[in-house]
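Dissemination and training. As part of the outreach component of the grant, students in the summer workshop were shown how a complex can be specified as a set of sequence lines and then modelled as a single object. The example used during the hands-on session is reproduced here so that future cohorts can follow it. Participants entered these lines:
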Amino acid sequence: MLDAEVALVRALAVVGLAPSSAVGDVASAADRIRFDISDLALRARSTGNPVPAVVADLIAQTAQASADHIHQGATSQDIMDTAMMLVAARTLDLVIADLDHVVAGLAAIARAHRDTPMVGRTLTQHAVPITFGLKAAGWRSVALDARDRIAVVCRSLPAQLGGAAGTLAAVRAYAPTAPTDLGARLVTVYSETLGLSTPTLPWHTLRTPIADLGAALAFTAGALGKIAADVLVLSRTEIGEVNEGVGGGSSAMPHKANPVLSTMIVATSRQLPALAAILVAALVAEDERASGPWHAEWQTLREALRLTGGAAHAAAGLVDGLVVHPDRMRSNLDLTHGLILSEHAYVDLATRMPAKAARTIVDDASKLAVSSQISLKEAMRSVEGAPSGSMVTDPAGYLGFAAELTDIALERQAAQ
Amino acid sequence: MLDAEVALVRALAVVGLAPSSAVGDVASAADRIRFDISDLALRARSTGNPVPAVVADLIAQTAQASADHIHQGATSQDIMDTAMMLVAARTLDLVIADLDHVVAGLAAIARAHRDTPMVGRTLTQHAVPITFGLKAAGWRSVALDARDRIAVVCRSLPAQLGGAAGTLAAVRAYAPTAPTDLGARLVTVYSETLGLSTPTLPWHTLRTPIADLGAALAFTAGALGKIAADVLVLSRTEIGEVNEGVGGGSSAMPHKANPVLSTMIVATSRQLPALAAILVAALVAEDERASGPWHAEWQTLREALRLTGGAAHAAAGLVDGLVVHPDRMRSNLDLTHGLILSEHAYVDLATRMPAKAARTIVDDASKLAVSSQISLKEAMRSVEGAPSGSMVTDPAGYLGFAAELTDIALERQAAQ
Amino acid sequence: MLDAEVALVRALAVVGLAPSSAVGDVASAADRIRFDISDLALRARSTGNPVPAVVADLIAQTAQASADHIHQGATSQDIMDTAMMLVAARTLDLVIADLDHVVAGLAAIARAHRDTPMVGRTLTQHAVPITFGLKAAGWRSVALDARDRIAVVCRSLPAQLGGAAGTLAAVRAYAPTAPTDLGARLVTVYSETLGLSTPTLPWHTLRTPIADLGAALAFTAGALGKIAADVLVLSRTEIGEVNEGVGGGSSAMPHKANPVLSTMIVATSRQLPALAAILVAALVAEDERASGPWHAEWQTLREALRLTGGAAHAAAGLVDGLVVHPDRMRSNLDLTHGLILSEHAYVDLATRMPAKAARTIVDDASKLAVSSQISLKEAMRSVEGAPSGSMVTDPAGYLGFAAELTDIALERQAAQ
Amino acid sequence: MLDAEVALVRALAVVGLAPSSAVGDVASAADRIRFDISDLALRARSTGNPVPAVVADLIAQTAQASADHIHQGATSQDIMDTAMMLVAARTLDLVIADLDHVVAGLAAIARAHRDTPMVGRTLTQHAVPITFGLKAAGWRSVALDARDRIAVVCRSLPAQLGGAAGTLAAVRAYAPTAPTDLGARLVTVYSETLGLSTPTLPWHTLRTPIADLGAALAFTAGALGKIAADVLVLSRTEIGEVNEGVGGGSSAMPHKANPVLSTMIVATSRQLPALAAILVAALVAEDERASGPWHAEWQTLREALRLTGGAAHAAAGLVDGLVVHPDRMRSNLDLTHGLILSEHAYVDLATRMPAKAARTIVDDASKLAVSSQISLKEAMRSVEGAPSGSMVTDPAGYLGFAAELTDIALERQAAQ
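and obtained this result:
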C-alpha cells in the first residue's frame, strides 16, 4: 500500500498538484515506516479497511507540507485495489517462471519418451496402448494453456485511481482551472510509475481484473492438478510407472515414500475453483463501492495467489525429479494378456467382414480370454467364425499416431 | 451428436477411409431418425453415456455397407465432446448477439445521460455526485468485457476426435499403409466440416475448452449481474431513479411492478460461479478418460449455457425498456442537505489551510449538520475557524471528470 | 403446485373462510387440468414465476363461487415454496430407502469380510494391512451418517403460508372479527393436510429449510462418493480387488467392463458441493422477498435432488452387485515383499531397544530391500545391529484391532 | 498439536503402555517448547505435513526413556485431525457465546418493536405493511437456527487415533498379550483427556466431522448475512430506518458513517459457501489416507472458523449498537400514497363482489393513482363500479398477524 501512496504523490507532482519535494519526503517516510501488524488490524476494524490507519502512520512520519499531499484526491479503495494488483503482479511473475520451467521439463520428458509404450487407461481400466511421450505432451499442453492465461492477465493488471466515487472529483477540485485531461494524465502517470496498466475507467465496482485473476489462477491450479492426478495414479504401488524423485517420509511407516508434491498440487486444485467462484461472484458489486463483495475479495485473492504459487513451484520440482520406469510401463501392458489389443483385433477383422460380425467375434473371444485366463490371441482361435488374422500381439505395434501427435504438440510455444 | 457422426463419415470419405456413397446414406439416415428420449436415457445408464445407443439407432437406419463406417475409429467421448462444442457454439452466437445489443443500448443511454447528475453511493451511503452517464458507461464496459471473453472462447471451440485413448489407433489400423499425416488430416477435415476449430491434441482429459467456457460464462453472468444489481437498487421504491419498462405483476398485490428481468439476471449470477467451479475442477481428469470429472461436465455445462443465455436475453430486454428518472436523481442529491458535497468543502479549505485543520472543520460541520438538521453550508458558518469559502452548493458542480471519463470509455469497441 | 393450492382451499374451509363445497370443486378442477409446460414457461417469464399462470388456469377450470377462494390470502411464493418442499419430501423418501439398502448391503459385506486381509493404502502407497471388513464398515458408517442427516431434514420440511409479506394480512382482512389465532390455525391445517411440518414463522426470506436440504444432499453425495472413489481405485486393472458386477460396455473396446455406477456417483459428488453452496448462499435474502436469491434456488434444488437421488439409487445397485476378490487382495499384500510390515518390524525392535535405534535399523533395511529387490526379512538380517526378532511375516498377523473395530461399528443403527 | 501428543502419552500410561513418569516429562517438554513457525513450515514441505517436525522437536526436549513414548502408535494424521478438532472446539465456544448474545439482543428488539409498523418490501418494492418486531423475530429465528446447528456439531467433535491405516496395529503390537478391547479403551481415554467425543471408528477418510463443521459454519455465516443484508438495505440514505450505532469513517468523505459491521458480515457470508463446498467435497477421500482431499481441509477450515468467528462477533456488536428509527419507518409507509394498502382494498371489495371484478377495480385504481399522483383512496373513488368501501387508510391497520407471529416466535428457545 505504501508503494501506491508514494506513486500517487509522484504522479501528483508530475501533473503539478504537489511540489516535487513532496515525492522524496513521502518516499523516505515510507521507507522508514515499520508497521505493527496486529495494531493495524485492530484499527482497520473500525473503518472497515486498513488504509486510513496506514495513511495516518505515513502522515505522522512526514513533514506537514509534504504530508498534506499524501492520499490527496484518493479513496481507500484506490490504495487497496492498487496494492492487490502489485501483489498479484509480483506473484504472477514467479508463477510464470515456474510454469516455463514445467513446460520445458515436460517437453524434454515428452521427447525422451516419444516412443515409450504404456497402458492407456479409461474409466480406470486398461483400454489401448499409448506412449508416455504423448501423455507428457498433453501435460505440457495444459501447462502451456495455464502459462498463456496467466500471461494475459499479468499484462493487464490495472492501477486504481478514481477518488470517492470514481469521478476524480477531488483531484479536479484541487485544480479547478486545469485542462479537462488532467484526470486521465494523473491516472496514466500513476499507473506507469507502478508498472501497472492504465485503466480506461476507475473499476471500484467494475471488477473485471479480480474475476480474471481468479479464473486464470483456478485454471492454472486445475491444469497442474491434472498432471499431479496422473502422477498419483501412475505412482500407486501396484502400477509403479513413475515416482516423485524425492518422496515424503512417513511418521509411522519407515518404508514409505509418499508423492508429496503431487498431493500438495491436488490439494490446491481442490481449493481454487471455490476461491475463483468467490472472486467472480464479486463482479456483482452494487453502487460505486460495494458492501461485502469487495471485502470478500481480499483474503480470497491472497489465498488464491499463495496456493497457486505454491502449486506452480511444487510442479517445477515434480517435473525436475520425476523418475520414469519404462520397464513397469512395459510389463503393465501385458497384464491383460492381450486384451489391451482387442480393438485392434476388431479393426483387423472389420476390414475383412461386416463390422457387426467382427464385433461379435471379438466380444466372444474377449469374454473367453477373461473366463479361461488365456490370451486374447488364443481365445480368438477358439471362437467360431474367426478367420486367422494378422492381429498385432505387441502393444508397441498399436500406437496409432501417438508419436506424430507428440511431435505436433511439441511445436507449440507460449503465446507470449 | 448426429451431426458429429455424419461429419465423421464425411471426413473418413475425404481421406479415403470410407466410400463417398456412405456420406449421403448416413446423412439421410440421421435426418430420418426420431429419438425416444426417455428410452435413450435408460439405455445410456448401462454404458454410462448415451452415445452407444445413438450409434446403434443410427446404424439400424442405414444400409450395412455404409453403416459399417458409422463411428469408425471413434470413441463415445469423441462424439459427446464434439456435440457439447456444437451446442456451445450455437448458444454463444446468440449470447454474443444479445451482448452486442446490450452494449449498443448502454452506449446510447450513457451518451444521453452524459451530464445527468445523480448520487454516487458507497457502502450504501450517499458519497459524492456522479453522472448516470458514467454509471451506464461502466455497465457498458463490463458488458464489453463479457462480450470479448465470450468471443475468444467461441472462436476456439474444438472438435474432438482421438479414438479409444487419444492415439487414433483404430484409424491407423484401418489404413496401415497410409502416410503418417492421415490422422491430422482426418481431424482437420472433421473439424472444418463441423465449423469447429481443429485441436492440436485430442483433449479427452485435457479439458481446457470446458474450463474456458465455464469461466467466460460465469464472467458474463457476473457482468450482467452487476448491471442488474444496480438496477435493483436504483428502482427501490424509496430511490426510484430507474425502473424496468415492463415490470412483473404480483399475484397478491395489484399495484406492484416488480423488476423481474433484473431479478432473473441476478438469480443467474448467483448460480454461474458455482457451475464454473464444477467445470474448472473437471480439469483434474486422471488417465485417458476420467471417471467422474468428465461426466460432471454434461449437465453443468448445459445449465450454464442455458442460464447465461437467458440472462443475456433478459439484459437486452432490460436495456431496451429501462426508464430513467433524472428528476428523482436530482431530488435524491438534495436529501443530505449538502453533505454529499462535504468532500468538496474539505478540498476547498485544504487548498487554503493545512489538510488536518481543514478536515477537522468539515468533520465538525458535518456532525453539526446532521445533529441540527441544517445544511452543510449553514453548519460550516457556525464552525469555529472556518473561513468563508467558495464551497459549491450545486451537486452538478462537483462531478469531477465524469463526463470526460464517459467519453473515453465510449470510444472502446469490441475487441472483435 | 396444484396440491398446495388445493390444500389451501381445504384449510380455508376448515377455519371457516371458504364454503366446504369449494374444496371438492377445486380438487376436481385440479385433477382435470393438463398444463402445456412450454406455454406455462413463457407466461412465467412476465411475472417472474409460474404461479400466476397456474392459478389462472386453475381458476378457469372452476366455477366462480369456488374459484374466488383459490389462492385466497396467499402469495406466489407460498405456493412455490410449498411445492418445492413436496417435491423434496417425495424424493427424500426414495433416497432414504436407497440409503437403507446401501447400509444393509454394506453391513453384510463387512460381516462376510470381517477377517479378509487387504492392503491399507495411504497417499497412494501400500502402508500396513487392513481388512476389507473394516473398509466396508467405514463405508457403511458414512452411508449411515448420510441417512441420519437426510432423515432429520425430511422430518422438518415445512409448508409455507405467509401472504404478501409474511403477516397473513389478507387472511385477517377476510375475517376481521375472527380470533387472533386464526392465522396460526390456518397454517397448521394447511401444513398437516400436505403432510409437511408446521413452520413457526413464514420463511419467505428465512431460508433454513433450503440451506439444510442443500447441506444434507451434498453430504449424501459426498458420502456415496467416498465409497465410489474407493471402488474405482480397487477396481483398477492393476489392483483388481473388487469390480462392479455389471460393468458398462465400451463403444470402442470390446473387452472393457467399466465401473459405470461408481463413475456416475463420483460425477454427482463433484456437482453437489457447488449446488449446496448456491443454496446456502441463498440464506442471504434481503427484505420480505428477495430479488435473485430465491429464484436461484429453484433449478438448483431440483438438480440437487435429482442427482443425489440418482446417486443413491446407483449406490444401491453398486452394493448389490459388488464382486470381491480376496485372492487379489491377498496377492497385492505380497507385492512389496514384506515392506508392508515395516511398521511391525519397527515396533518389534522398539520394544527391545531405544526407538531411535530401532527406527534407523528398519529405515536401513527398508532401503536395502527396495534397492536389492529382496524381502524386508532378508534385508533385516543384513543390517548391522539388528537383533534377530520375532517379526511377523504374514500380513494377516498384523491387523491390529480391525476386527474389533468392525464389530463395534456394525452395532450402530440409524438414529431414526 | 502438542496437546494431542501429550494426551496420547497420558492415554498410553492409563492403559499401561507407557510409564506414568512419561506423562509429566512430555507435558513439561511441551510447555517449554517454542516453535520457529517459518522453520516448521519449511520442514513440513518435505513430509507433506508439519507433524513429523513437531514430534522431532518434542522428542529433542524430552529425556529418552519418556521420549520413546511420544507419538507411540500414532500417525501424523491422528495428531493433525485431533488438533483441528481442538481448534474448532475453542472457536465454536466463542461463536456460540456470540450467537447467544445476538439471539438475546434480537429478542429485546423484537419485543420493543412488536407493534412498530414499517414497510414490507418484496422484490425491492413496497408490498404491504409489516412490523419491525416481526422482522427482528425472523432475524432471531435464523440466528437460533445457526446456534442450534453449531451446538450439535460442537458436541460431537471427535478425537482421532487410528495409527498408520486406522487399525491401531502398532498399539496392538506394543502389547500383543493385552485384551482385545485395549484399542477402544486407549481411544476413549485419549478423547476424554482432550474433552473431545470418542469416535466409533478412526475417521482418516471418513470425514463426516469436517463436512459437518463446514455446513454449520456456512449456515451461520448465511444466517448472519441475512440480518446484515437487511440492515444494509434499511440503512441506505434514502431509507434510513436503522443504522449501525458506530459507523465506519471514510478516508475521503468526512460526513460518512458506513455500515462497517454489516459489510464485514456480508463479506463473510460470500466466502463461507465456497469454503464449505471445499470441505464437503473432501468427503470423497480415497484409500486410508487421501492424497489431496485431506490436505485441502487445513487452510480452508482455519479460514472458515476465523471468518465465521469474526462475523459472529461483528453481529453481536451490530445488534448491541443498532439504532432504530420508527419515525422513518412511519414516513416511508406513506411514500406510495396508500398503494401499500392496495391488497387490503382488493380484499375489502372481494368480500362484497366477485374476486375478478374486485381485482379489476383495484388494478385500475392503482394505475390511476400512479399516473395522476393521487392517493389510492382518491383513485378508488374515480374508478367505475367501485362501491364506497371501508378501506383502511392507516398502514398500521393492516398488519395481519404480525404481532401474534412475533409472540409465537419469541417463545422458541435454543434447542440446547
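The beta strands of chain D are 117-122, 125-131, 242-243, 323-324. Students were then asked to discuss how this feature might be tested experimentally.
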